[in-house]
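Same chain as my last thread, 227 residues:
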Amino acid sequence: MIRILIADDEPMIRAGVRAVLATDPGITVVAEAADGHQAVELVRRHRPQVAVLDILMPGTGGIEAAAEIRRTVPDTGVVMLTTFGEDEYILRALSEGATGFLIKSGEPEELIAGIRAVADGAAYLSPKVAARVVAHLAAGGAGARAGRRSAARARVDALTARERDVLGFLSGGLSNGQIARRLRLAEGTVKAHVSSILARLGVDNRVAAAVVAHEAGVVPVPPDRLP
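reply #2:
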């Protein structure tokens, strides 16, 4: 059972999210919060696998709450759920440790898929968010892009061959369990490889590692192309 916390200052939105999640018998909502401060306190108390946070809330917002959750309860994954698609919110949220980002106007099935992915240790970006991240990577002129590519390739080249294999699957959005099955490794071994990859690339989370992989030209391996 995947335990979820929902944080949104609008009771109707919380009720809607809860109703969507209630359609999946493998998901249960253990707590609701009306602001980021309350969300952090309830995450500490209930230790859910995933916290679903609105970005803009009175007082402490979702981005600040995500950073505090990452610092104090790192085993809880964070999914940002918002009506705001501006790049500044997306990039700030990802830099503060969110591993999922969904737009409220998306399909209900996408919310469940995102939560399941993050609970399983993977990252999940809605198609609209992914498009904005890619657009951001493409910005800045040819010289800036070339510099980023060169730096990213140098970081990826420092990985072992097995770590580069794992990075390809990771950047395709696969969880540790899925990677382990594809590479015929123990899940604990894959977890160790992922930790080493994050450290060697100098990033804090799987989304940031996938961004480095994209800039380095690593071809992601999507689940639907796997045997």
